[in-house]
DNA sequence: AAAGTACTCAACCGCAACGCC
DNA sequence: TGGCGTTGCGGTTGAGTACTT
């Protein structure tokens, strides 16, 4: 194991690729095929990291890639797969010929998350916001916050063993939820969905992240278990109250805009 | 027209898994 | 069995562009 020995970053070009560099990669691959990427820069005459070459090939130069817009069918499939397996972009991308995991991930982060949020659907749990608020609103007291859950996202959260390597293609017309007989640990998030870019910062509600760490740490049928099922915890604080108030206010606006979400029946 | 803000997406980073010796 | 190198993956960044004020 261990950290991969990457190129000497001070001596390799970084940033956007030029047409000339692309041509070198294409020429190399067409004559040698894809192989040891660490050798590619030297053999192809590129002043790039091998990893960067592999990424450029995988995400852009591969001849089987599509560069057109996502179709509504692809969009729907991404949403369903994300609901079933979470952010396992490589698995999702395998179901979309010509699309890369990076494509899917970017499309999700820039388009689909916002779309679901606007529809009143939580883009992580795929549950209606009103239902989640009902769950959280039913809590009479705030559970004690376990220390390991406080702070930034737990990057080490890994799929449960039963979900690993479920990479068989889906047969058409099957129930995706039944295809995936494993559970995906849902990552915590902030309700007011923003793209994860450097430009987003101040709009998250104070306390929200902590609250959703707790939400994410428990499971229900769809990966989240209501707080009311938790036995431990009892404290409350004003930041949580204001957070809940903000959520309730937001939910009220959503309900006004999308009354159909009240019956909990969704069609993406 | 200019400045500020939001959005998009290619590329990078770091970690873990894998395979070979 | 453990170390090393390579590959795969998901999260994040930031430059370029579009949009708004």
Summarize the model shown.
The protein is mostly helical and 268 residues long. It has helices spanning 19-32, 40-44, 50-61, 72-85, 89-94, 101-118, 129-137, 176-179, 208-216, 238-257.
**Average pLDDT:** 62
Terminal Cα span: 42 Å
Oligomer: single chain
Fraction of residues in β-strands: under 5%
* Low-confidence runs: 1-5, 140-267
How many beta-strand runs?
A: 0
Main sheet attributes: strand count, strand direction, barrel closure: none
| SS summary, helix count | 10
Computed structural class: mainly alpha
Q: What is the radius of gyration computed over CA atoms, rounded to a whole number of angstroms?
A: 22 Å
What is the element string, with H for helices and E for strands?
HHHHHHHHHH
Shape, principal axes of CA atoms? elongated
Subcellular location: Nucleus
InterPro entries: Homeodomain-like_sf, Myb_dom, Myb_TF_plants, SANT/Myb
Main location: nucleus
Keywords: DNA-binding, Nucleus, Repeat
């Amino acid at each position: 194991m261990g950290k991969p020995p990457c190129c000497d970053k001070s001596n390799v070009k970084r940033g956007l690729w030029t047409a000339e560099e692309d041509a070198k990669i294409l020429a190399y691959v067409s004559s040698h095929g894809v192989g040891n990427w660490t050798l590619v820069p030297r053999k192809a005459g590129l002043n790039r990291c091998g990893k960067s070459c592999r990424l450029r090939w995988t995400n852009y130069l591969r001849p089987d890639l599509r560069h057109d817009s996502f179709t509504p069918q692809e969009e729907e499939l991404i949403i369903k797969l994300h609901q079933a397996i979470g952010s396992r972009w490589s698995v999702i991308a395998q179901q979309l010929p010509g699309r890369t995991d990076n494509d899917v991930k970017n499309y999700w982060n820039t388009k689909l998350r916002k779309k679901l949020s606007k529809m009143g659907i939580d883009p992580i749990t795929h549950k209606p916001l009103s239902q989640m608020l009902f769950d959280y609103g039913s809590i009479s007291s705030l559970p004690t916050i376990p220390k390991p859950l406080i702070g930034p996202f737990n990057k080490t959260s890994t799929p449960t063993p039963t979900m690993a390597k479920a990479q068989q293609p889906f047969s058409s017309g099957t129930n995706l939820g039944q295809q995936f007989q494993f559970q995906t640990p849902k990552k915590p998030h902030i309700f007011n969905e923003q793209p994860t870019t450097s430009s987003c910062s101040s709009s998250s509600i104070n306390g929200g992240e902590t609250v959703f760490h707790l939400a994410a740490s428990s499971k229900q049928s769809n990966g989240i278990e209501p707080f009311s099922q938790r036995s431990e915890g009892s404290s409350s604080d004003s930041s949580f109250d204001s957070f809940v108030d903000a959520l309730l206010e937001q939910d009220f606006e959503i309900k006004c805009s999308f009354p159909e979400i009240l019956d909990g029946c969704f069609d993406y």
